[in-house]
C-alpha cells in the first residue's frame, strides 16, 4: 500500500490562510444589494440575499406544552406578541418614571447572589438551576425547571435564602421590565418563566456601594462589559414584609437540556469566531440556516442548522445522510464531543472510539465505510504520535469531518485552534469552519472568553434559548446574506453578526475570459506567484557547445540563444480548479496584480 493510498492527509499544502480579517464593524456590504460588477460572470461581484431560514418549523413540536403556573401560558402569549421570554423589548424604555395615566412602570426582579450572577453574566441568560455549571443555593433551588420573578422587593427571608451558602456573596436583584411576560398581565407576587435573556434586563442592583465595588473588583474573561446596568440600591433590600409567599409552581416545568443548549450556542459562536473571509462567512451562513448561497463558494451539502441544533429529543432529530460519509462523520464527532468535558476528563482515543462506534452504527455503504476507516485510522496514528502531522493536501479521499476532528483532538481550546496558522494545517475553509464548530461544541459558550465572542450573537442565541424553552420556533432567526463587490455581511433576525470582504472570483471563468494574446503571460504570472513549476525551453544553435553543472548551464555559440517560457494550459486550469481557502485567495491576488 502506498503512502498516498494509506494517508489521505499527508503531503505539502497549497493552502495558507493568514489573511487578516477586515473590520467587523464595516457595514458597507449592506449599502447596495444590487451588483455593480463590471464582469457579470465574476461571482465576487454578485449580490446574494438569503431571506429564509433553513427550517420552517421547530425541531420539536410541543403541542402539549405545559401551561405556566398561575394559569398564564407565557409561551403561547410570547409566540403571539414576539416579546417576553421568546422575544426582545426596548430595555431603555423600561423603568420609566410614569405614564400619561400616572401609572408607575411595573418591574420584575430575579433574586440571586453575587456568585450566581457571574454565571448569568457569562451565559447572558437567566435560566433554571440546571443551567448553572457552578451554583450557589438561591431561589432556583426551590423551583426546579423554572425561574421565579418577584413582583416586589424581596423579603428578609428570601434574601437569607440566597445568601445562606458560604461563599455566595451579597444578594443581587436583576431587574426586568414587566413586558418580558408578553401579553400576560399578572398581579401574582411571583411569576414563573422557563428562562429570560439578560439582554432584557434594565438594571442589576446591589445592597450597597461596597457590594457593588466588590463585584467590580473581580474581572472574568468570559463576561461582557455590563457597567451600564450596575446600581447600588439599598432600599430594594430593606423590605419589612413578612415572608408568607411560598415558591410553588403550579405546573410541571418543560423538559429542557440546558447543557445541550449551552453546547449548541458554543458551536454557533465558534463558527463565527473562525470566519476570516467572505467565503468562510458563506459557510457559516449555511450552518445557521441560509439556503440561497453564492455558487462560487463550495458548501458541503451536509452543512446545515440541523447538524448544530440537537437541543430536542434525539429521536426527533433527522439522521445524517448515510450516503455521505462526511455527514455521518461530522455528526458522530459533534454528538460525541457534546457529551465530553475537557475540564473533567479527556482522552482523544476514547473520543475516537466513540466516534467510530457511531459511524459503524450509521449503516454506511461499503465504499463510504472504507473511506471512513482510512480517514479515522490516519487520525488515530497522528494523535498517538505514530506518524508526524503534516499539512493537509487536496485529496478526494480526505474527509472534511476527519480533518476537522483531528485538528480539535490536537488543539481542544478554541483560541489555540483558531490561532493555528492555516499554512501549517493546510485546512481549507470548510475544514476550518467545521473544526471550529466541533471545538465550540466541546467547550460550550458560557466558559468561552469574550475575546472570541460577539455580544450581539450571544444575545441572539440567548433569545433563541428562551424561545425554545417556551416551546417556540427552534430556528435561530431569518438569515440575510448580502454579497457584492464591496463585501459580504450576514444578518440573523435583523441583527448583523458578521461583515467581511468580497467573495473571491471564479478564477477559471476569469482566466477563460482573458484575451488569447494575454493568457500565456497570465499563466506565467500566477504560476510564479503560487510556486507552481514553470517550464523554460532553450533552443540550442547548431554547433554550440553546452556545459552543465548543478546550478548552471553554459552555451558557447556565436548565434543568439532564445529562451521560451511555457506552462501547459490544461494543467494550469486543473490547478486553478483545485484551489481552496487561502491558496485561492493568493491566486486571486496574483490575477489582480499588475505584474
How does this structure look, described?
Helix 6 runs antiparallel to helix 15 (455-469), helix 8 crosses helix 9 and helix 11 packs across helix 14 (429-443). The chain has 3 domains: 107-237, ADP-ribosylation fold (Alpha-Beta Barrel), CATH 3.20.170; 258-500, no CATH class; 507-592, no CATH class. The longest helix has 18 residues, at 366-383. It is of the alpha+beta class. The protein has helices spanning 3-6, 74-81, 114-123, 156-163, 209-217, 258-273, 278-287, 325-338, 348-360, 366-383, 400-410, 414-419, 422-425, 429-443, 455-469, 507-512, 516-530, 569-578, 581-592; strands at 107-113, 125-126, 147-150, 171-177, 190-193, 196-197, 203-206, 230-232, 479-484, 487-492, 495-500, 535-539, 545-548, 553-556, 562-566. Residues 1-48 and 50-104 have low confidence and may be disordered.
Rg to the nearest angstrom?
Answer: 29 Å
What's the main sheet like? 4 strands, mixed
Q: Which strand-content bin applies to the residues?
A: 5-15%
What would you call the shape? Answer: elongated
Helix content: 25-40%
Number of strands: 15
Counted up, domains total: 3
Which structural class do the helices and strands define? alpha+beta
Low-pLDDT windows of residues: 1-48, 50-104
Mean pLDDT: 82
Multimer state:
single chain
Number of helical stretches of at least 4 residues: 19
Q: In which order are the strands of the major sheet placed?
A: 1-4-7-8
Q: How widely separated are the two ends?
A: 44 Å
Annotation keywords:
595 residues, alpha+beta, ADP-ribosylation fold, 4-stranded mixed beta sheet, 3-stranded antiparallel beta sheet, 19 helices, disordered N terminus
Amino acid at each position: 500500500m502506498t503512502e498516498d493510498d494509506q494517508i489521505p492527509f499527508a503531503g505539502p499544502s497549497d493552502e495558507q490562510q493568514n489573511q487578516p480579517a477586515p473590520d467587523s464593524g464595516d457595514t458597507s456590504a449592506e449599502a447596495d444589494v444590487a451588483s455593480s460588477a463590471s464582469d457579470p460572470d465574476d461571482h465576487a461581484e454578485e449580490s446574494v440575499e438569503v431571506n429564509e431560514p433553513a427550517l420552517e418549523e421547530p425541531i420539536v413540536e410541543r403541542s402539549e406544552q405545559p401551561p405556566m403556573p398561575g394559569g398564564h401560558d407565557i409561551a403561547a402569549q410570547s409566540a403571539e406578541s414576539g416579546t417576553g421570554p421568546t422575544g426582545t423589548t426596548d430595555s431603555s424604555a423600561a423603568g420609566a418614571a410614569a405614564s400619561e395615566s400616572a401609572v408607575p412602570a411595573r418591574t420584575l426582579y430575579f433574586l440571586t447572589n453575587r456568585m450566581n450572577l457571574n454565571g448569568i453574566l457569562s451565559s447572558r441568560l437567566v435560566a433554571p438551576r440546571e443551567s448553572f455549571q457552578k451554583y450557589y443555593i438561591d431561589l432556583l433551588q426551590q423551583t426546579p425547571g423554572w425561574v421565579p420573578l418577584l413582583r416586589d422587593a424581596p423579603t428578609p427571608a428570601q434574601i437569607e435564602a440566597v445568601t445562606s451558602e458560604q461563599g455566595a456573596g451579597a444578594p443581587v436583584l436583576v431587574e426586568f421590565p414587566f413586558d418580558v411576560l408578553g401579553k400576560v398581565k399578572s398581579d401574582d407576587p411571583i411569576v414563573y418563566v422557563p428562562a429570560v435573556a439578560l439582554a432584557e434586563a434594565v438594571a442589576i442592583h446591589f445592597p450597597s456601594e461596597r457590594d457593588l465595588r466588590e463585584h467590580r473588583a473581580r474581572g472574568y474573561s468570559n463576561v461582557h462589559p455590563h457597567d451600564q446596568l450596575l446600581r447600588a440600591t439599598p432600599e430594594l433590600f430593606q423590605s419589612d414584609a413578612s415572608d408568607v409567599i411560598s415558591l410553588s409552581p403550579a405546573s410541571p416545568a418543560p423538559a429542557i437540556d440546558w447543557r445541550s443548549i449551552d453546547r449548541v450556542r458554543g458551536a454557533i459562536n465558534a463558527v463565527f469566531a473562525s470566519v476570516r473571509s467572505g467565503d468562510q462567512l458563506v459557510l457559516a451562513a449555511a450552518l445557521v440556516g441560509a439556503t440561497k448561497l453564492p455558487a462560487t463558494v463550495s458548501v458541503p451539502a451536509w452543512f446545515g442548522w440541523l447538524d448544530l441544533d440537537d437541543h430536542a429529543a434525539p429521536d426527533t432529530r433527522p439522521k445524517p445522510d448515510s450516503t455521505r460519509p462526511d455527514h455521518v462523520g461530522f455528526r458522530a464527532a459533534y454528538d460525541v464531543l457534546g457529551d465530553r468535558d475537557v475540564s473533567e476528563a479527556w482522552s482523544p482515543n476514547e473520543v475516537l472510539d466513540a466516534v467510530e462506534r457511531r459511524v459503524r452504527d450509521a449503516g454506511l455503504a461499503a465504499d463510504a465505510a472504507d473511506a471512513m476507516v482510512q480517514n479515522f485510522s490516519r487520525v488515530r496514528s497522528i494523535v498517538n504520535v505514530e506518524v508526524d502531522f503534516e499539512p493537509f493536501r487536496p485529496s478526494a479521499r480526505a474527509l472534511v469531518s476527519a480533518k476537522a476532528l483531528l485538528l480539535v483532538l490536537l488543539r481542544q481550546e478554541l483560541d489555540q485552534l483558531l490561532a493555528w496558522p492555516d499554512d501549517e494545517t493546510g485546512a481549507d475553509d470548510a475544514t476550518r469552519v467545521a473544526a471550529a464548530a466541533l471545538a465550540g461544541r466541546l467547550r460550550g459558550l458560557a466558559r468561552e472568553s469574550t475575546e472570541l465572542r460577539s455580544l450581539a450573537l450571544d444575545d441572539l442565541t440567548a433569545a433563541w434559548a428562551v424561545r425554545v424553552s417556551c416551546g417556540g420556533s427552534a430556528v435561530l432567526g431569518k438569515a440575510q446574506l448580502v454579497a457584492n463587490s464591496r463585501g459580504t455581511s450576514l444578518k440573523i433576525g435583523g441583527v448583523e453578526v458578521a461583515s467581511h470582504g468580497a467573495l473571491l472570483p471564479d478564477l477559471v471563468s476569469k482566466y477563460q475570459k482573458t484575451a488569447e494574446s494575454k493568457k500565456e503571460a497570465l499563466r506565467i504570472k500566477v504560476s510564479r506567484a503560487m510556486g507552481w513549476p514553470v517550464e523554460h525551453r532553450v533552443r540550442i544553435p547548431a554547433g554550440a557547445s553546452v556545459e552543465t553543472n548543478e546550478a548552471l548551464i553554459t552555451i558557447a555559440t556565436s548565434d543568439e540563444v532564445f529562451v521560451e517560457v511555457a506552462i501547459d494550459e490544461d494543467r494550469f486550469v486543473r490547478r486553478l480548479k483545485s484551489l481552496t481557502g487561502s491558496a485561492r485567495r493568493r491566486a486571486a491576488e496574483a490575477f489582480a496584480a499588475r505584474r
